[in-house]
## 1
Amino acid sequence: MTDADNHPDSGNRPDTDRTETGDRPGAALLDVRDLNVVYRGSGWRRPSFHALHDVSIRIGAGETVGLVGESGSGKTTLGRALLGLAPVSSGSVTFDGTDITRAGRRARRALSRDIQVVFQDPYSSLNPAMSVESILAEPLRAQGTSRAEASVRIGELLRQIGLTADAGRRYPREFSGGQRQRIAIARALALEPRLIVCDEPVSALDLSTQARILDLLIDIQQQTGVAYLFISHDLSVVRYICHRVAVMFKGRIVETGDGAAVTSDPHHPYTRRLLMASPLPDPVRQAERRRRYAALA
Ligand SMILES: Nc1ncnc2c1ncn2[C@@H]1O[C@H](COP(=O)(O)OP(=O)(O)OP(=O)(O)O)[C@@H](O)[C@H]1O
């Protein structure tokens, strides 16, 4: 995408039909219901912490749902719960009909193909001692893909993220931050997941690189139909990429709805405060980002 009008600040992410509640009609790919997560403490020095309170959220196939909220509100904890990595005390996380919180080992193994994650920091999320080829081969080999098939798939993945085939022989240190994040995205895509938890995937990148990575994620979604849970602090980014947005405050979801509506006409007082702290649109920032983006196009 090279049109400056399709810039992250413009909030014109193509939308699809919505129901009145903002949910897509039909069965959800992911259905989180009344989820509670409690981190157990150890004595009075480290008391237990109730991180998520009765959280419910749905994500449809091919949909991007944004999760915004201040630091410590529980966004990453929810992302971890989808990966089966949070101490769930009650509630359910149903992915395509299987409750992740109660799944046995075999079901979990199958789910680990379907749900992948991309982290904020591409510098620390890639093993510096491994070539890109080995990084991308790892999830494929772990699922029993043959060497020959893995090699073909790695070629496809590099093309998909816009890197040349020789990138496979190089190491993470030889790439820029944006290129490393592309490699992290390719690793997440290797097993053709149906949902990717994107935990602040562009916050460590400069503005023009952010725009390119967001466009890559949108292109990939259009090609593959993957769904995203997109965790971010940046409302302009969320407005650009997300179909729907959920706002978290102190471990609770306080508002959900259409991405453009929530970010321009918030109902909950906390969302209004969030918007005031990061005004949208900011004409100066918008013009600056458009200029940089156009120069790169
Ligand atoms: N392993 C843990 N043990 C105890 N408490 C934890 C643990 N992990 C997170 N927490 C607490 O749970 C709360 C939610 O943390 P979480 O990382 O989910 O927030 P967040 O919204 O993702 O924050 P940020 O935007 O800063 O990443 C915080 O108060 C945090 O201190």
## 2
Amino acid sequence: MRLPGRLSAAIDVLTDVETRKRPISEALKAWGLNNRFAGAGDRAAIGNLVYDALRRRASHAALMGNDSARALVLAVAVRDWNEDPAALSASFGADSHAPDALSEDELARVVGEVPDDTAGFVLADVPEWLAPSLQRGFGDNWIAEGQDMAGRPSLDLRVNTLKSSRERVMKSLIRFTPAETAISPIGVTMPAGPGDARTPNVTSDEGYLKGWFEVQDQGSQIVAALAGARPGEQVLDLCAGAGGKTLALAAAMMNKGQIFAYDSDRNRLAPIYDRLKRNGARNVQVRAPQPDALDDLVGKMDRVVIDAPCTGTGTWRRRPDTKWKLTPELLAQRVGEQAALLLEAQRFLKPGGTVVYITCSILPEENDDQVAAFIAANPGFSSTPAAELWSVAFNTALPLGLETAQGGIALTPRLTGTDGFYLNALRLAA
Ligand SMILES: C[S@@+](CC[C@H](N)C(=O)[O-])C[C@H]1O[C@@H](n2cnc3c(N)ncnc32)[C@H](O)[C@@H]1O
């Protein structure tokens, strides 16, 4: 397929996403099944167009004067992919799969700029109702933070030090020109390419099948390292899900000590068994959800990790559709779940133990506010100093701007080139 056909397909997929409230991946898959002539390169390009359209949905719509799928995709082609609008429009005539040629109005709009006096939420490409919250969290930088959250993410891998080394993994993936991650000492990264660039398919690589690495954003690797689990400790991973953090903790503990991996959702936990095997993680006991699943752990844990259910606002670059689906009700629901988990986690700690609270959110309601309320109600706990956590994990000074008012650590695409994450290590007095 040529670009006009791909644009047309992207308009169809985006319409499907928006009207049926389908996740992007599902809509893309459905399109692929109905259009089997399309190759992998076509599908990747169409996916990129749809993701880019949603990453900057608000500013694309403001520029074009409407938020139809057509307007958004045309804006991507010109603003993000640097296509010349007149040439593009002319090329539509020669392609039977192309969208209609651009109107005079579209041609004029698509080369314009979003005026500087446009509302901040449009410049930041975030939902209007979240602007006050982001402003409170990021101060004067909130628009810049939003803009970086609307970019394309890199593909990051965490080297499994139980089985391999960074050097070996990089060598095995040399065809993708991997680079070392800037902060995580065990990370490998492949920057996102422009336009129709394809994301490397690393999970069919021999090294992946042998358990040498996992696909894991550098931000997730950093918070797993900051969790500070040491060999020999007793650790409860209370929201283990498919085990992304569990695997990183097991490697950090060099398979010594014990991790109990629990999740209240059996289906989310299901992939962990195969992943543990592939990774050679042998110090993990999976606890499937049932009423007494964790009763024997009460008062015995050195560390309880809460990788909390959250809005996922830190992952907007990867899942831009969720940015526009989030509602105040869903945020309130997540905040309630997080508070309940913080309360629940305490009972498993030994005196002197630590609750490590993690989210992949950039919203203060789920991060510092949550911690402030917890410490106010539970004065036996205090935040472990952020600088201490960082120097123990990485042997370097905490970079400026990462420490939050409540002594937590916040990562963002703008600050650390990672997904957005928050961590606060709450130590119980001995
Ligand atoms: C952010 S995800 C965890 C991701 C996982 N730790 C990883 O690194 O791949 C949050 C998880 O919390 C789980 N969860 C939600 N409420 C819970 C609860 N009350 N107790 C335990 N797990 C819960 C969800 O099922 C979900 O899998």
